User: Fold this.
Amino acid sequence: MGCLGNLIWFIFGGFAQGISWILAGVLWCVTIVGIPVGVQCFKLAGLAFFPFGKEVEYGGGAVSLILNIIWMLLSGIILALESVILGAVFCITIIGIPFGKQCFKLAKLALMPFGASVVKH
Assistant:
């Protein structure tokens, strides 16, 4: 079921969200200091493309907190807003609710990507 969900997700919303993460990663990689942030964006683009069957575990320390604050101000709010709007649109129908839940998972991740790890389940 996860394979079918990922395929439908990719067609109806995952491609756009994954491209957004890749674009954010490219913009962060323009500077040498931003390369670690850009690499994290590229890792999370894979989750944005195919989120079904994967969970996000949050952790991290002080460095993750500082990076999350900087991230949120420069890129995170825009990516989270995109995910929330798309999730609200998906949740209009009963069939779209699982896709909306994946959007909301990505919105939370867009606000706090550092210290987070993606785990297959």
In short: The first strand starts at residue 54 and ends at 58.
